[in-house]
Write a structure and sequence with these properties.
This protein has 1 helix and 8 strands; from the N terminus they run αββββββββ. With 183 residues, the chain is of the alpha+beta class. The protein has 2 domains: 33 residues; 146 residues, Porin (Beta Barrel). This is Outer membrane protein beta-barrel domain-containing protein. Keywords: Signal.
Length: 183
């Protein structure tokens, strides 16, 4: 290898190292200056139950969020939800959800995906079942407004199958609109 080729290789490596070091320092500075902390969101939920005898859902919630970084957060959510039956002689199901989740912003620091897991504690009509609750969602958030679309599955709540027999597991597709602020 000629001396000029060696000098070119060393020069390219030196310039590459300078750019890599500079971009790493900027990332560290941006992460360090990000204001981690708690946020509180208060939301309204509405949706459509995917299994009979339930049809519509309505509820409200409060979500405590801790921002780990600009892109990642952990959440705790509770509130009250009601699954309304489609027939006049049926009993609605009201429950208190308690969920923990992880939120990841994936595009423009505004669009996110989130997964939550927890329990749904039935509190109405002498229905004493507690259910596992799973809830994946996608959403859009600004400084104060949070709008999300999610599917919630209540693993242990009873439903009616197509043939009229009873089964287990109720799902709903819902929309959440919330107002949030820093604490």
């Amino acid at each position: 290898m000629k001396t000029t080729e060696k000098i070119k290789i060393v020069l390219v490596l030196a310039i590459s190292t300078m750019f890599a070091t500079n971009s790493h320092a900027q990332e560290a500075a941006n992460t360090k200056n990000y204001d981690q902390g708690f946020r509180l969101g208060v939301g309204l939920n509405a949706g459509y139950a995917a299994h009979d005898p339930f049809k519509l859902t309505l509820g409200g919630d409060a979500r405590l969020q801790y921002d780990l970084s600009k892109r990642y957060s952990v959440t705790l959510t509770t509130g009250y939800s009601n699954l309304f039956v489609s027939e006049a002689d049926g009993n609605d199901l009201g429950f208190i959800p308690a969920k923990a989740g992880f939120k990841a912003f994936v595009w423009n620091d505004q669009f996110y995906v989130m997964g939550e897991v927890g329990a749904a504690f039935a509190v109405s009509n002498n229905y004493d079942q507690t259910s596992l609750l799973l809830a994946p969602s996608i959403g859009y958030a600004t400084k104060c407004i949070d709008i999300s679309l999610r599917y919630e599955h209540y693993n242990d709540f009873e439903r009616l199958n197509n043939n009229g027999s009873q089964g287990i597991g109720v799902g709903q597709l819902g929309v959440r609109v919330a107002y949030g602020f820093k604490l």
